[in-house]
Amino acid sequence: MNPVEWLRRWAALDGAAPALLLGDRVIETRASLLGQMARLAGGLQGLGVGPGAPLAVVMPNRPDYLVALGAAWMLGAPVVPVNTKLHGREVAYILDHAEAVVALVAEPEAIARHTSGCCRLVEVGGAEHRSLLAADPVAAIAPLDRDSLAWLFYTSGTTGRPKGVMISAGNLLAMTLAYLADVDQPGEEAAHLYAAPMSHGAGLYALVHLLRGGRHLLPESGGFEPAEILHLGRTVGRVSLFAAPTMVRRLVDAVVAGAGDGQGLDTIIYGGGPMYLADIEAAVAAIGPRFVQIYGQGECPMTITALSRRLIADRSHPRWRQRLVSVGQAQAPVTLRIADPEGRSLGTGDAGEILVRGAPVMLGYWRDPAATARTLRDGWLWTGDVGTIDEEGFLTLIDRSKDVIISGGSNIYPREVEEVLLQHPAVAEVAVVGHPDPEWGEVTVAILVPRPGHTVSVAELDALCLDHIARFKRPKHYHVVASLPKNHYGKVLKTDLRRLLTDPEPSTS
Fold first, then answer.
1. What is the pLDDT of residues 448-470, one digit of tens each?
2. Mapping DSSP to helix (H, G, I), strand (E, B) and coil, where does residue 400 land?
3. Which domains are assigned to the chain?
4. Which of 24, 178, 305, 411 could form a disulfide with 328 if both were Cys (CB 3.0 to 4.6 A apart)?
5. What is the dihedral sign for C-alpha 468, 472, 477, 479?
């Protein structure tokens, strides 16, 4: 299974059909895109890229990204996608650890002084890159077997050095087919818009559209600009995109402000962080039944559960709110269960760690057998997430196991508290974390971002919590801040928030 073979088949049927767009302009047809990949592959082959010799990609979203993915896979080489927001020293660690042969890099100077020199840095758009794109094309597409390493994704490393998640060609095929079974069924006329970073899950959704002969759409801004996305929906049509919950919120705000109505946006897949009930209700009300939720992680990319657009839009079921705060049901190729720390299965509604088994689950961690053994046990992936499964099979995420607050011997799940606080009309965003306390072990602290022009009353927040959750779960302290620290994907960095809470008696606001 080689994704470039899918493109080759579609090019054979109609090579002049549009394949790659920059904004609303077609810049590559199927045939020309395949040719670009083949020429870059020819150039990279001369530098040693091939099976077991990875190509790293360290660039923001741009047309070159898709060409680089295809070129590597044509050679049977793994791709190492790297977050461009990382420090040069962090990027260098990944390149060295992955044993990448070549890295296509947007800003090589920031990385070069930190690397061991084993990886050749090629500046994207520079003279060497242009010469690689002008090389003689490779004659054939290399085979990728089920267990061939195809995607070496490095985790965020919030608890230490990042780990390289080994995703095989078989994992990617299972992910792609699961998308068609459980998320959406795009056709040739569809266009996938890369607004979230292609170094993460959004880039993997390229495979679905390669398989179905669809179009690939890069916004000219290179990022997530709501007005631009609404414009592209109208002008390009049949657009789908993956968005983090914070991106969905920004898109909804733009629609409410009159920037557009979502016309031409077929499917908005959201995931990568908690989507709060109030936010998805507002999104469906503003834009309509265009939303599908997925839950996955790097170790089982995009393919653990899904909540369909029908269920997200349905208000007739007596438990529709409970379904809406869930992340849906298991996708076709996986099995789920909830377990205690010893691996014993728990009952319906009991909270425990989420375990996953199935074809999309990673091969393991690159050069880290100890971490692999801790995470893959008896065929099950231990996700590190805490959740419950109800009698209908809907999985509800409670929190990351490392984010659970233990106060006075009782477990407090931050998301439960955050859902309550977000009901206050003056609260725009909130994150709840634990703070060390000599008496209780930990106490609950809420960090709040108020809506513009609003003030937040501690007394009102306390009353709101006491109306909805047990008294011991109520935050002991509140901080009001201008913004929450987030990664490039829009996920709140709770590790950074904990570092900020150095005062043993945080002030309330």
1. 999 999 998 999 999 999 888 87
2. strand
3. 3-372+380-389 (3.40.50.12780), 404-500 (3.30.300.30)
4. 305
5. negative
